[in-house]
């Protein structure tokens, strides 16, 4: 596994990856584009901080030792926090190149182009306080610009709007404070007066990445591979790169890497999730009369009930550890996998029975070759299994299955129907990361 990961809300961080690759040609690198959540610059600092920590913990579970936060917004929101929360990981962040810009200016005015989130962060205020005292620092927020670059839309009208005040301010040095902006550097320079210096910090960041790796004794000798991960469900980005989807939904509260699969927790309506299969916490007769089972049956539009009756007629009552398979009817998923979790009783092997239900569901998913599964808190509702215990057994059983089985599963979502159940799943996953 690669020792260094570079991540951003989209493709902007590839400007950093390219410079790192030049300095470490044989290193194995991971690039993570958080397409499902980006662009970060249009979210609050709190949202970006939580999301960045979630991804950092995911990368830690994948064995990454050094993480490059190749996003100014994420660095502003989370860099200091991450260094405290995950001291075993080396973090290299982005900061607008205010210091070198102050050394280059002759007019006494520099401009920084960045997202609103970058300007809101303590990191930027600290930079200006330490290095900007002798010059005027003109802050130009550029809402929508990173998104336009990401989506390949024309940026000319936005640049005309954002660069006119920079020119009027008399700035002779312009700092690119978002990793997306070097991708349109030519268009930016074309709108600035001749002689204006444009500062891109990517080379300095790459030097720091390699320096820190050497200081930590990381072995960067590999096969010169670059692994491309996107949190988007569509890995075809039409950019010539081979992207792999790592399914970390917008509402995910925790995620870990297990083998080549992603195990996550998220809150939401399981019946509306676009996954290969949904797991139903069923009873032995497949009578979907309440709770999640009723919601799934209703969302299926009658098909699930009819096929469940047919399955029972053909096979008899559903046994522990066995899965019944029906189509998903009107739901976005393709299949419903029905398993009967235990009704919690003192004195019976509750944990073994619940683990068998999880393994049965994932075995069935493997047999039908789906890539993604959404699973609720089996037995933790009307069946009486204590929720803290149930979510731990489900999470650990899913991780054990993904770690030991050869299968096509790339994503297992553990879905809480409310924030409390979701938090329990997240606690179970986080505990697995911390225990190694």
Question: How would you explain this protein's 3D organization?
Answer:
This protein is of the alpha/beta class. It has helices spanning 14-23, 45-61, 72-85, 98-104, 116-120, 122-131, 145-151, 156-169, 185-189, 202-215, 291-299, 303-315, 350-367, 387-404, 419-435; strands at residues 4-8, 29-33, 66-69, 90-92, 109-114, 136-141, 173-176, 197-199, 226-230, 243-245, 252-258, 261-267, 277-282, 323-327, 335-340, 372-375, 411-416. Strands 11-12-17-16-13-15-14 form a seven-stranded mixed sheet, sandwiched between helices. A six-stranded parallel sheet has the order 4-3-1-2-9-10. A hairpin with a 7-residue loop joins strand 14 and strand 15.
Low-confidence stretches: none
CATH architectural group of the largest domain: 3-Layer(aba) Sandwich
Strand ordering within the main sheet? 11-12-17-16-13-15-14
The counted number of beta strands is 17
User: How far is the first residue's CA from the last residue's CA?
Assistant: 16 Å
Task: Name the CATH homologous superfamily of the largest domain.
Answer: Leucine Aminopeptidase, subunit E, domain 1
The share of residues in extended strands comes to 15-25%
Give the helix tally.
15
User: Can you tell me the overall shape?
Assistant: elongated
């Amino acid at each position: 596994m690669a020792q260094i990961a570079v991540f951003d809300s989209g493709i902007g961080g590839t400007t950093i990856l390219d410079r790192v690759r030049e300095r470490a040609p044989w290193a194995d690198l991971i690039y993570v584009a958080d397409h499902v959540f980006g662009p970060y610059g249009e979210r609050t600092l709190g949202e970006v901080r939580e999301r960045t920590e979630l991804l950092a913990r995911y990368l830690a579970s994948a064995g990454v030792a050094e993480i490059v936060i190749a996003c100014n917004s994420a660095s502003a929101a989370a860099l200091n926090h991450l260094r405290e929360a995950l001291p075993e990981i080396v973090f290299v962040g982005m900061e607008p190149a205010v210091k070198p810009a102050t050394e280059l200016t002759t007019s006494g005015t520099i401009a920084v182009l960045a997202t609103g989130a970058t300007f809101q962060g303590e990191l930027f205020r600290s930079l200006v306080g330490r290095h900007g005292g002798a010059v005027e620092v003109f802050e130009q927020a550029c809402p929508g610009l990173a998104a336009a670059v990401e989506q390949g839309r024309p940026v000319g009208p936005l640049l005309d709007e954002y660069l006119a005040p920079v020119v009027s301010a008399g700035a002779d040095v312009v700092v690119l404070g978002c990793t997306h902006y070097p991708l349109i550097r030519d268009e930016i320079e074309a709108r600035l007066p001749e002689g204006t210096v444009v500062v891109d910090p990517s080379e300095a960041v790459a030097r720091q990445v390699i320096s820190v790796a050497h200081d930590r004794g990381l072995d960067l000798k590999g096969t010169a591979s670059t692994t491309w991960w996107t949190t988007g469900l569509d890995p075809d980005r039409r950019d010539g790169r081979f992207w792999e989807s790592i399914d970390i939904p917008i509402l995910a509260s925790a995620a870990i890497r297990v083998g080549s699969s992603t195990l996550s927790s998220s809150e939401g309506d399981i019946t509306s999730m676009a996954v290969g299969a949904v797991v139903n916490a069923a009873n032995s007769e497949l009578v979907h009369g309440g709770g999640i089972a009723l919601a799934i049956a209703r969302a299926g539009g009658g098909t699930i009930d009819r096929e469940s009756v047919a399955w029972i007629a053909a096979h008899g009552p559903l046994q522990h550890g066995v899965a019944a398979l029906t189509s998903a009817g009107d739901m976005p998923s393709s299949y419903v996998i029905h398993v009967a979790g235990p009704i919690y009783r003192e004195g019976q092997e509750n944990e073994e029975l619940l683990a068998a239900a999880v393994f049965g569901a994932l075995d069935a998913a493997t047999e039908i070759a789906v890539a993604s599964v959404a699973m609720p808190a089996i037995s933790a509702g009307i069946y009486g299994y204590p929720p803290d215990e149930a979510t731990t057994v489900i999470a650990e059983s899913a991780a054990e299955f993904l770690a030991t089985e050869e299968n096509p599963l790339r994503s297992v979502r553990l879905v809480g129907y409310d924030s409390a159940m979701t938090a329990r799943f997240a606690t179970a996953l986080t505990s697995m990361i911390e225990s190694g």
